[in-house]
Amino acid sequence: MKKDVQNNKLQVYANGEIVYKLKGKVVKVTATWDFEAPEGAGDSHTAFMRGKLCNVIIKQGKEEAYKPTLYIQANVTDSLSTFEGKLKKAVEQDIAANYIGLKLIKLSDKLWTVEIPDQYKVGHEAHFGQVTERYLNYLKLGKLPEWEVPDMITKYYTTTEALKLAKQ
């Protein structure tokens, strides 16, 4: 690793940001690896997906007690009550048909959170175990599922090309 040490600091390509277009839509991905998580926290995740009618946001900061929390923020001003009715139906009827107990909680005129029952919250370590189990099964079978292949190719192409650009 000596080749990667400059001024007594290890130079690594761990933190970064990629901004690109995918099928005409702007995509921005930022990865930040802190030396240490804030007290009371572990690995955290934040996601922000912009849509025409609403934004879907996942936060896991201090305000959320470092627990992943799903928010829905309306972008519409006209027909807000219609939007809310459709959102409530989607969460509490359509999605809850497979995930019983989901509940939509209104926080303000244009902001809701989705209350997710504890039975669906497996935690970071248990989730890591589930992912590992699936991976080992794929390894045993000698192949990935068909749906995974294009996603993996895209992910690794994007990240390796981004690293090439970062090194220029």
Quick structural overview:
The protein is globular. The relative contact order is 0.09. The protein has helices spanning 80-94, 124-141, 148-166; strands at 5-6, 9-10, 16-22, 25-31, 47-50, 54-59, 69-74, 103-108, 111-115.
List keywords for this structure.
single chain, 168 residues, alpha+beta, Phosphorylase Kinase, domain 1, 5-stranded antiparallel β-sheet, two-stranded antiparallel ribbon, 31% helix
Written description of the protein model:
The chain is of the alpha+beta class. It has a domain at 42-121: Phosphorylase Kinase, domain 1. The chain is 31% helix and 27% strand. Strands 5-6-7-9-8 form a five-stranded antiparallel β-sheet, covered by helices on one side. The protein has a two-stranded antiparallel sheet with strand order 1-2. A two-stranded antiparallel sheet has the order 3-4. It is globular, with a radius of gyration of 20 Å. The two termini are 20 Å apart. The mean pLDDT is 88.
**What is the distance, rounded to the nearest whole angstrom, between the alpha carbons of the first and last residues?**
20 Å
Principal-axis shape equals globular
Poorly predicted residue ranges: none
CATH topology of the domain at 42-121: Phosphorylase Kinase, domain 1
**CATH domain class of the domain at 42-121:** Alpha Beta
CATH architecture of the domain at 42-121: 2-Layer Sandwich
Strand content: 25-35%
Q: Tell me about the biggest sheet?
A: 5 strands, antiparallel
Overall mean confidence score, pLDDT:
88
How are the SSEs ordered, and which strands pair?
Blueprint (H helix, E strand, L loop, with lengths): L4 E2 L2 E2 L5 E7 L2 E7 L15 E4 L3 E6 L9 E6 L5 H15 L8 E6 L2 E5 L8 H18 L6 H19 L2
Antiparallel strand pairs: 1-2, 3-4, 5-6, 6-7, 7-9, 8-9
